[in-house]
Amino acid sequence: MIERxxxxxxxxxxxxxxxxxxHAVPPALRLGEPVNFFTQRLQPIHFAAETRxxxxxxxxxxxxxxxxxxxxxxxxxxxxxxxxxxxxxIFERYGxxxxxVVDYAVASQEKGFAPLRALMQGGGADxxxxxxxxxNPPFGHGxxxxxxxxxxxxxxxxxxxxxQLTDAIELNFGQRPAIYRAGRYGLGxxxxxxxxxxxxxxxxxxxxxxxxxxKSGPNFxxxxxxxxxxxxxxRRLGIPLSASYTGLFAHGxxxxxxxxxWKIVERMRLKAxxxxxxxxxxxxxxxxxxxxxxxxxxxxxxxxxxxRIFTLSYHSPSLLPGCTPYVRDAGELDAFLAKxxxxxxxxxxxxxxxxxxxxxxxxxxxxxAPGTV
Length: 373
Known about the structure:
Layout: H1 4-13, E1 43-44, E2 54-61, H2 85-93, E3 99-102, H3 104-108, H4 110-121, E4 126-131, H5 155-173, E5 179-182, H6 191-197, E6 202-203, E7 228-230, E8 236-238, E9 243-246, H7 253-260, H8 263-267, H9 270-276, E10 281-284, H10 292-304, E11 309-315, H11 330-349, E12 354-355, H12 358-368
Parallel strand pairs: 2-3, 2-11, 2-12, 3-4, 4-5, 5-6, 6-8
Antiparallel strand pairs: 1-7, 7-8, 9-10
């Protein structure tokens, strides 16, 4: 049973901590061949061991989309957005201000933007942008799996889609977005330059250590989980998702992850067996497809490796039963919400972490390392 009242005041009072202590920031580095679409030299930020862990919540706010069906911009219903209040109540109990990164279907329809705008105006949420090419104008181009990743589009098309999304958010939320997450984590050769041009302060698209190449997506296998500076003057902040490998053979993740994704290996269920035996597992910090025990294990593993910023993420349709494989009925919805609540209580209690927003992270880093901005 959750000791809710005792924990609530503690977590709320500790939300705003001192600027994190940093190790000396190493020289800017160029990432390796697996991420050759990064044209900038990114500068990673490493935290001192005594830095308190920080948790941000970012929700991909999007339409109800059936991934078994072809991409079609007419599939843009957003009934799920009204259900976000179910998790929002949990966040508010513990002093957490989530960020909803909204795609064009949400930003352009009143059923989508009105509930989230009310949360934003009440001080309970921040709003960012989430570019899903198949629902974002301009249309008239082909759409397949390859082009569902924004970074695979022609640069002028990617930029125009992002511009139209940015304008729709500014129009209907009354505030220009400054946080970005590419749909399907699909950064490309021109993405960071576009974010810089359009005034975005923070990117939350990198899936560290993971190769999406088999799905036509980017290869992040050489990118670590540390936040990094990018853009002109190194004044933009990248905050990767919390994803990593655990188990006895985690150090060989580049080769093993590729092998475990082979169809024959999937049919033999060897990946699941390796996970059960504690040999090798790839996990994201999310209630979607991961148990509370797995999320705790991932967090402890990443803390032991020096990580201090964590991102809890999920997709908004998971709060409307039947829209995702993670929540198919009311019982699974209750379990999903319980995983969220139990995790944040554990993070703020046993781990001793604090709850922050992306903007608070950037402000702390700006103060702590002004020379890198």
